[in-house]
Amino acid sequence: ARCGHCAEPSLPCVATTSNLYLGNIFTKVWLKMGGVKVKKRNEVVNMPLKPSIPAASLLSEAQTIQFKKMFNQQLEIQDRYACNTFTIHPWRFLMLMESTLSQNNINIKSTHLEGSGAAHCLCPKSVSNYNDLDVCFYLESTERHVLQSIRHAVAQTLQQCVKYSQPDCFASAYDIFDSYVHKQFITSDCHLNEPSIKPNENDSWALYSLQGVKGTPSLDLKFVQKLGRPYQFSVDSFQIVLNSQHLAGWFSTEGSKLQTDISIEASTDHSPEIFTKEHKPILYNSSFSDIKKALNHLKHKHIYVQCESEMAKVRGGGLLKYAYLLAKGWT
User: CB under 8 Å to 42, separation ≥6 — which residues?
Assistant: First the structure.
């Protein structure tokens, strides 16, 4: 892994940390530290890092086509018992979810596609496949009760999806929620085992994961009030801005604006004619300091972090992803 602030790209230094050990894969992490001079092998002097640069850009025509293919594919979501499924296009699910949030007086600032799905859209050669679509809803309210009420909105949305695929299903919204949500997590107000430990004030979010059948991407829904670390490595930092009204205009057969009373109807038009130049361009950004560098890292399969101290925070799932990228030939 490397540091993103490379003032002297040819000058390596060695950093070791107990948090970066996984079998025999790595015991030393080679970092190219920008703004850092190496006195001795294991002695470094930190210098001021460059300030963050606002990062935003527009998808190219090829990237836009890739994006539309991803959101117009048909997802088949299965329950936890692998007995029942329902099918829906990601863009339709997004419209239903945003409509339900609005009906429950939950306002969102923006909605993004993140993770491997965003990386695949930007550079399919480097990220040839993705296992899930990570859709993040950034909430306006920071009140705790709003985050807890998200569960009800997700349950209502799933109930609409299931009733369309299974008209004879009369299960309640929460029964359907318990059946189809494979994984759920919400940041706690206090530590479960030690109530005296204060919660992380930088994190306030909820996650609900829907599992796709084999060969179909899963759908991960993340509702964010505050997020301490938005990414692990620079290739994870991309966010494609989603606009449900624009998606409705692209994919709906009528081409009309999204109405307040959304109903699920089978999309029958998959022709290229719906991909017209009249549609507004798609914006994407990066929480990394420099979007051009982050894109270069993605293109050349480089694993970069923002600074040396960030490497000590890579653990758990991030550590496993680091090992996975190494196994895939990333450097």
Answer: 14, 16
pLDDT in tens, 166-181: 888 889 999 999 999 9
The pLDDT tens digits of the residues spanning 188-230 come to 765 444 454 455 677 899 999 999 998 889 999 999 999 887 7
CA distances from 277 to 23, 126, 272, 281, 312 (A): 51, 27, 11, 9, 46
pLDDT-based confidence at 41, cuts 50/70/90? very low
Using DSSP's 3-state secondary structure scheme, residue 120 falls into: helix
Token duo for residue 26: 């790595």
Q: What is the DSSP string of 188-250?
A: -SS-SS-TTSPP-TT-EEEEEEEPBPTTS-EEEEEEEEE-S-S-SSGGG-EEEEE-HHHHHHH
For the chain, the first-to-last Cα distance in angstroms comes to: 7
- Tokens for 27, please give them: 């015991």
How long, in residues, is the chain? 331
- Taking phi first (over 0 means left), then psi (-120 to 50 degrees means alpha), and beta for anything else, what does residue 111 get? beta
Helices within 166-304 (DSSP H only): 173-180, 244-251, 291-299
Task: Give residue 244's Cα distance to chain centre.
Answer: 17
Residues 52-89 pLDDT 10s: 444 578 999 999 999 999 999 999 999 999 889 999 99
Backbone torsions φ then ψ of 89, nearest 5 degrees: -85, 140
Residues 6 or more apart whose Cβ sits within 8 Å of residue 220: 115, 132, 133, 134, 135, 207, 208, 209, 210
